[in-house]
């Protein structure tokens, strides 16, 4: 079974394109924020309120989003976007979020050593001793650089440095 | 003379050197451009005075323009976007065994362009600053609108996509307490959002983390052979063929650099197109023409210096990098703009003088030490990116010691990843975020001044002229958008995506 060629109008099927999704997402997001902006006063032109600028911008955003949707025919089909890096992206962002979640609780050295070690050893399949040496060495070095030399403190571990 | 007395202080020299060195490395390493590099290293400057901080950060910026050429020529990987054009003929020269000559011409061209840029900056910035002292809110509103329109006009992506990104940036800039009325806007009961969303978490997330998310380690290979020192000197013909492209690239780059947009990227593209057009042997382009290296490399360095003119003289950033540099000055209590030269002459002149010194340092660093720098490229990317993520987190956290900023960076990383997938350039978003408070304040002040009449923007000559120019540019852009005419912006987009 072969997929219809790009731009094929056989069967009058509408091909969902990249800018349909992008423009639609901006319209929905701007609409939601506009709905949340009810308590912000627009004011008058002679005395503009806190809501004037955001509301004008949101209307512009909806307008630009609509133009994007209307001209979406020029953009490539949605199916042509390559997502082969999504697993890498999800892993990296998930691990970074987990490390951020415990950053101030268990401290910089522990959270960042764990983050870099997991990425190097489990994700990138580097040798155990190298992954451990790099993650601990760079993290401890950075901690002393910022805390001691640059006098810009990083979160300490609960019972140690 | 005040500038040189500041620039030659041992501490300032040291930080200029550290900035140039770091910038060279930042420019070479794929996945970390000048914007992410400056943002990540911004907290390192907190313990320094404003002069040393800005000297170091600016060193990273123009150093990255030098460094980017090394990976482009030796590996066909642009360390940063402005080096894309250098890949074409630089790598072709490398394949013919002339990598050393290409590196030398790139470094010399960058030095000449950078030095020329600083000389013009020295002459132009102070009088421009004096002129801008007469600007009121309507002029600033008009100038910022012109900046945004020019950004859209110059962008390699479409007019609507650029304006859309700029509006998103302006919208994010509205988050926090409204300084004129005290209203909390979109803060969702998170006290940290009261001060608004900072530029550093947004820039690091969009450019640093976003790039890492879309670059799996198996896609980055690092096979590289460093040229020997003896191979670095170009022959007589190569010097001869490079002279005029360097001169043209320098002037063109500086002019483009003053204008808003990703000037250093655009300037290198325009320079390449110009050289190909004026060349007697255009067929050699793409096969190792030295003019294809000399022109774009000179242009992107001149453009990086040109970008400092509006930043220093008017207090207006022309791109995300100058926006972060402006934020750095503000953090150190030095507001850039027309008053800078009078109120902080040591910072202003020290910064400019340090750029003369910095360009010399970069020439000395980049030629003899190319073999050393190449070793950095041999570090596998799988080791680099976990460490870059760690430095992203440190860099963002250290600005305000706020974990909320780190969460914002992670969210922006995901946004940056999705924007790349849907072919949006995140740079206008960052610019919009930076100018949002200035634009909103000046717009509202203008309306209050005129008792609600829009005519104030046209009754004042400077504001009126700026708005008319904005309208003309918008119409020109809209015309090509509506007629779907393929112009130089589409060609630039093709080049940036590697379709050249």
List the helices and strands and how they pair.
The complex is a heterodimer of chains A (161) and B (500).
Chain A: H1 18-36, H2 52-70, H3 86-101, H4 103-106, H5 108-123, H6 128-149
Helix pairs in contact in A: 1-2, 3-5, 5-6
Chain B: H1 2-7, H2 10-28, H3 34-41, H4 50-75, H5 84-95, H6 99-132, H7 137-154, H8 159-173, E1 176-177, E2 184-185, H9 199-213, H10 236-258, H11 263-278, H12 291-306, H13 308-314, H14 320-331, H15 340-343, H16 345-366, H17 370-377, H18 381-400, H19 403-421, H20 427-449, H21 456-459, H22 461-483, H23 488-496
Antiparallel strand pairs in B: 1-2
Keywords:
heterodimer, A: 161 residues, mainly alpha, 2 domains, B: 500 residues, two-stranded antiparallel sheet, 23 helices, globular
General description of the model:
The complex is a heterodimer of chains A (161) and B (500). Chain A has 161 residues and is an all-alpha fold. In chain A, helix 1 (18-36) packs antiparallel against helix 2. Chain A contains six helices and no strands. Helices cover 60% and strands 0% of the residues of chain A. Chain B is mainly alpha-helical and 500 residues long. Chain B has one domain. In chain B, 72% of the residues lie in helices and 1% in strands. Chain B has 23 helices and two strands. Chain B has a two-stranded antiparallel ribbon. In chain B, strand 1 and strand 2 (184-185) form a beta hairpin. Chains A and B meet through helix 1, helix 2, helix 3, helix 5 and helix 6 of A and helix 8, helix 9, helix 18, helix 19 and helix 20 of B.
